[in-house]
Amino acid sequence: MNDREINILLSELRSFPNETEWVEFKRNNDEELGEYISALSNSACLHDKTHGYIVFGIEDKTHRVVGTDFTVDKKGKGNEDLIPWLTRSLNPKIHFDHYTLDHPDGKVVIFRIRATANTPVTFLNNAYVRIGSYKKKLSEFPEKERLIWTKEPSIGFERKNAIEGLSNDEVLKLLDYPSYFDMMNLPLPSNKNGIIEKLTQEKLIQLSNSSYSITNLGAILFAKDLEQFESLNRKSIRVIIYDGKNKLKTKKEQKGQKGYANGFDGLINYIDDQLPSNEVIDTLRKEVKMYPKLAIRELVANAIIHQDFSVSGTGPMVEIYSDRIEITNPGKPLISTLRFVDHNPQSRNEKLAQFMRRLNICEERGSGIDKVLFECEVYQLPAPKFIEGENYTRIIIYAHKTLRQMDKEDKIRATYLHSCLKIVSGEYMTNQTLRDRFGIEEKNYSMASRIISESIKSGMVKDYDPESSSKKHAKYVPFWH
């Protein structure tokens, strides 16, 4: 991971209200590090997490960064280097990474430990587990030990088969394979066998006995027609255009036919064509869309990637109203909507997400929402709104409003997200940056000050240095920083 990704991960771990059974915060004490690696790997398995974490340099109760003297360059038992000694003392030799971050408030060291699978991890022949915030010997909890031994590895949506029992000719009739080679900038093989071999390597199809299956990954990305895949035809993306600000009158509805990858550019262009334009005169008269195309592209890609395929009967949906666009995907978000900007990205469908990144359909991990916020600020639009529903996630982008037209909630939301965007960009929100965000003239700086004051009262932002007496050069950060 690079520094940005480590910062995002640290922010996500610190956001937990209390220590979880797969995260341990420490200041300096590393005497039982091997035992904790065992405990956190085993506990991560029990809680269906991919990794457990040990974080040095964080105060246990407040999760405040306090810094640490711990270093991985120390010695383990018998004067052996620490990391090789830990690795040799674990069985099975579970993989773990360690990262050092020079945080402004002190050095932080993070151990990321892979969850075990079907075999409890021991350290020096003893297995451990976390019970609440305590480390215990796993042998004291035989039911938990049994669960680790018998836990079935879950088969993700992408690896399951959408359709089976096909010949190679039938596979090539159902999949838009030329789009795959074109989007990957690969030459199209000269024969069927070469095409089939490459699709198999990518796990878009798989051979079983003497016939082929198209995986859900292959079908959902490159289907010529999703209607041909009974289990997936309700996962097509729907675009609905309404006449006005409510659902009373529908002007048009379009359901996607192609797979997400081979149909993506066509989908985005179709949405863009439905959006209103403003006429701008800048030496030349030209039409400028009301909404940034890059933001729409990223949010639609996010809806595709983060949807919960286990929610039956529905797929991603784009609804266009006269004053806003709502983009909805099935499934509750995996993290708080307040942390969409800075969080360590998590996806239910990691293979799908990786493939779409390789196809340049979406941004690298953790940068997509940043770009959405940046585009909305450039277009002087209200801040997007992130909504967690009972079994859905919805993001709303609003048409242009003047500052006078924005209500108190609009202003606080924009201020909070602006402060988040500044932090992930390595900067801080100030009165001046907020004036630029809202288009407030310098002589009206008190207007920005009032908005900041209301945002602080709401608990969404805070003073970076509350002890400072200078308000003119004051810096502000989101509540979680």
Record keyword descriptors for this entry.
481 residues, Methyltransferase, Cobalt-precorrin-4 Transmethylase, Domain 2, 4 domains, 21 strands, flat
Low-pLDDT segments: none
Specify Rg, calculated over alpha carbons: 26 Å
CATH C-level class of the largest domain is Alpha Beta
Average pLDDT over all residues: 90
User: What would you say the CATH architecture of the largest domain is?
Assistant: 2-Layer Sandwich
What would you note in describing this structure?
By secondary structure, the chain is α+β, with helices and mostly antiparallel strands. The chain has 4 domains: 3-150, Methyltransferase, Cobalt-precorrin-4 Transmethylase, Domain 2; 157-231, no CATH class; 236-398, Heat Shock Protein 90, CATH 3.30.565.60; 408-478. Helices cover 33% and strands 22% of the residues. The protein contains 15 helices and 21 strands. The strands form 6 sheets. A 6-stranded mixed β-sheet has the order 13-12-16-17-19-18, with helices on one face. The chain has a 4-stranded mixed β-sheet with strand order 1-2-5-4. It has a 4-stranded antiparallel β-sheet with strand order 3-6-7-8. The model has no long low-confidence stretch (mean pLDDT 90).
